Request: fold
Amino acid sequence: MRRIGVGALALLLLGWMAAVGPAPAAEAAGAGVVAVIVHPQTATGKVDADALAQIYKRRRLYWRDGARIQPVNLPADHPLRRRFSQAVLHQLPEAMDEYWNEQYFHGALPPHVLASAAGVLRFVGATAGAIGYVDPCTLDDSVRLLMIIGADGRVLAADAERRAPCAEPAR
Amino acid sequence: MRNSAKFGWIARICSVVVAACSAAASGYELGHGYPVGDFTLGGYAVADYASADGGQPWRASLDPLSAFLWWDGGGRWRFFSEVELDDALIVAPGATTTDDARVVLERLHLDYAHSDAVQLRLGKFLTPVGRWNEIHAAPLTWTTSRPLITEATFPTNATGAMLHGVLPLTADGVEYALYASPGEELFPDREIDTFTEAWGLRVAATVLPRLQVGTSVANYRQERAPDRKTLWGMDALWAWHRYELSGELAYITRELGDERADERGHYLQFVAPVTERVYAVLRYEGFRASATVGDLSLYLGGVTWRPRSGLALKAEYARATDNDIGLRDGLRASIAVLF
Reply:
């Protein structure tokens, strides 16, 4: 009798966890590629997916040459932000609230939020040490492509051979 | 007279806060502070209630009102300060008073970053022991009460120098804080038995994708204790979606006396989402104070509602056994806001 009770309780608990727990991360990464860009003169050194996550969690503040990293975000409901957040930080922007509240208690704020991808492109192109992300079709010579987040969510370093795919380059 | 002067003083602080909030109304976001050039002004406030317990009557209080001011010019230097008004207002049966209000300097430090891995901090800072003490602000925690082991066994603040940073040894980096204090606490809080001498080290890392583990060691002397103490501590946090399991344990040995003089304690806390914004909290604490006979056990169950980021409404019920140290238990509730 007691075993049945414990089993029922465990089943109930599992059902509850399944129903309540995974909800915030349930949103699937959307289709499309994200281009991670930096100011063209930034000495970034080696930046991989983990380093990119640390930059956007403000745990890594300096580039290789000692310049301060200036990360910028798009609004939390922007599709590019959500794709970037899931691929790089492995959670949606709203799931980071507690993390940022803790950081705030220590005097650290989340990356600045710019209203549009065009604003990100302009800011990164004009600001030493800046890093942001945009739609690859909007890239121009004012910025340097650092990484590509594929449609499958994989984060890859950009090089001469690996260009951000864009069917119709921006003019 | 003394009361009215203090009320006036609190009213002035509140009016400044209200004015700042009004000025910042457009674009201001709760829990993100109010930027003034390279400075940021922020803080948090807590109003709490504790039910009658044994010989102690019920009590409600505004404690603390905390203000942060920090400067970050985008270079290698940074400055951070936190000033609290503790026991700003106490309401108890037959008495409403501000007489116990006191201003406390929680933190005041200057940081120089040589790199992400090597940063130097000088001034008064939170003692890096365990996880709770470094994020103890009520809007960030799940319960109104604080586990004994996170504050009863060591001074929560230290004045001195700290070398800290994030070492690129793992995917998420390894955080460390190595510190030393010669005593001479900056604006000491009269309710804390401060360090007269201390050194310590804390190391924390994400060892599995959802598991953070930390370890702390500290060796110190305090103003009101005759001997040197050594603290050994461990802490862990497992977070999966919105579930959380966390715990800390510490063992403090003393130079004088035998094993009975040692202190030890631990807590284990489980948090589970009930709805999108409501969480259930369960905690077990064990604690043995120096020279006491039995181990205190505390069982706590509570609910926390976070209607939005930076705002928490909490209610909890705790019951202690072998309570030789007069720890308050019963019902507690609070509202905490990060602004």
Observations:
- The two ends of chain A are 73 Å apart (CA to CA).
- The longest strand of chain A covers residues 144-149.
